[in-house]
């Protein structure tokens, strides 16, 4: 990505990590490559191998990770667990690799290498409904801040007859799908149901959208996992002092960052929220006499972590403003003799111009960016 694209990516990922920490998630850092043994336990090797990048090193089979869950489960198994510790929440902004078919690759929406806000909640069966609701509330909060609209919910179910695609445990599939349906109905969520769209290890609640070409895709997802805790022999000591198997909620709060950027650029046509804009403000001089004040303001804004650049070119001021608008820069700041004398700035935003004291402007904008309005 270019510096501007990387800025959007970084801001989304910082936001997600900040919010996860506020909600009690523990952040992990796990490898992008592992032996096939790890994926054989989970079932990825048997059910998902064709979609993985595999390689041979000596006599060992390896694969680039398509998701983070097996690694975080190993972290959970690092020591004995008690019901008093649950739920345990792990999260990671992880680089993943999935071998999509060449005909499926599309812009930033579907790529071979992606960055996913991958998280897992390990909980007791009794905690499942409450934790699922918390994830959904978290997801709605993030959508509001980022500006995600026009989505709908899809309850994605498996197909127990398709044992090549799904883990072969009809009873567990029936129970987990019934559990998810009960949760969704208790939340009074409007959703559609679709068979044969689940993860290979359990049902999903997918948040669907259509891109500018009218193609439907999944932006966000929450999954209930009945299979992998048992496969990885994940346990906790219950109130009865007996070892029990936890449930797991997989979720991605911000999709792959690449797909989220694609969604936002399509929906906003580049008019991103101020906190996400690669360049948040551009300073323009009225005449060369004002260059010193413009440079001083740029330094002051940068010291407040506001992303700003400056245009001191000899172009007419109308042309410089027009160029800033073409680049979708939210704040266009003009400094002339009048502004210098009054220690103020003329700020153009959404085609409206307001003159405001410089320090008041800095304080207000800094607050708006920090609150991610």
Structure description:
This protein has 373 residues and is α+β, with helices and mostly antiparallel strands. It folds into two domains: 3-268, BirA Bifunctional Protein, domain 2, CATH 3.30.930; 274-370, Rossmann fold (3-Layer(aba) Sandwich), CATH 3.40.50.800. It is 36% helix and 27% strand. The chain has twelve helices and 18 strands. The chain has helices at 3-22, 36-42, 44-47, 69-76, 128-146, 170-186, 228-231, 257-268, 291-303, 317-326, 337-342, 358-370, and strands spanning 26-27, 33-35, 54-57, 60-64, 88-97, 113-123, 152-156, 191-194, 204-210, 216-225, 236-237, 243-244, 247-256, 281-285, 308-311, 331-335, 344-349, 352-357. The strands form four sheets. Strands 1-5-6-13-10-9-7-8 form an eight-stranded mixed β-sheet, with helices on both faces. The chain is elongated, with a radius of gyration of 25 Å. The mean pLDDT is 92.
What structural category arises from helix and sheet content? alpha+beta
CATH topology of the largest domain: BirA Bifunctional Protein, domain 2
Strand order of the largest sheet: 1-5-6-13-10-9-7-8
Distance between the termini: 25 Å
Q: What share of the residues lie within helices? A: 25-40%
- SSE sequence, one letter per element: HEEHHEEHEEHEHEEEHEEEHEHEHEHEEH
Please describe the structure with a list of short key phrases separated by commas or semicolons:
5-stranded mixed beta sheet; 8-stranded mixed beta sheet; alpha+beta; Rossmann fold; 36% helix; elongated
């Amino acid at each position: 990505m270019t510096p501007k694209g990387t800025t959007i990516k970084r801001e989304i990922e910082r936001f997600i990590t900040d919010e996860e920490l506020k909600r009690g998630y523990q952040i992990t850092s796990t490898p992008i490559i592992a032996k096939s043994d790890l994926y054989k336990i989970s079932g990825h090797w048997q059910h998902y191998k064709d979609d993985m990048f595999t390689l041979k090193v000596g006599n060992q089979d390896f694969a680039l990770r398509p998701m983070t869950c097996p690694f975080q489960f190993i972290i959970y198994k690092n020591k004995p667990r008690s019901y008093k510790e649950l739920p345990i929440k792990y999260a990671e902004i992880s680089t993943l690799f999935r071998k999509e078919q060449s005909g499926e690759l599309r812009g930033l929406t579907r790529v071979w290498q992606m960055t996913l806000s991958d998280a897992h909640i390990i909980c007791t069966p009794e905690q499942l409904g409450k934790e699922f609701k918390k994830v959904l509330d978290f997801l709605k909060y993030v959508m509001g801040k980022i500006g995600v609209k026009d989505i709908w919910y899809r309850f994605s179910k498996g197909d127990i007859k398709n044992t090549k695609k799904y883990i072969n445990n009809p009873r567990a599939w029936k129970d987990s799908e019934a559990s998810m349906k009960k949760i969704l109905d208790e939340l009074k969520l409007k959703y559609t149901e679709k068979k044969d769209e689940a993860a290979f290890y359990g049902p999903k609640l997918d948040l669907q959208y259509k891109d500018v070409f009218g193609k439907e895709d999944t932006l966000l997802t929450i999954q209930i996992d009945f299979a992998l805790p048992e496969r990885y022999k994940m346990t906790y000591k219950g109130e009865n002092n007996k070892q029990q198997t936890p449930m797991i909620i997989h979720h991605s709060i911000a999709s792959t960052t690449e797909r989220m950027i694609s969604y936002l650029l399509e929906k906003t046509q580049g008019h991103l929220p101020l906190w996400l804009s690669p360049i948040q403000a551009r300073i323009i001089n009225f005449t060369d006499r004002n260059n010193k004040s413009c440079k001083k303001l740029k330094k002051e804004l940068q010291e407040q972590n506001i992303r700003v650049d400056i245009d001191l070119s000899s172009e007419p001021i109308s042309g410089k403003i027009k160029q800033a608008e073409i680049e979708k820069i939210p704040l266009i700041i003009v400094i002339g003799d009048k502004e210098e004398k009054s220690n103020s700035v003329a700020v153009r935003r959404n085609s409206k111009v307001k003159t405001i004291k410089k320090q008041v402007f800095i304080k207000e904008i800094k607050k708006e960016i920090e609150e991610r309005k």
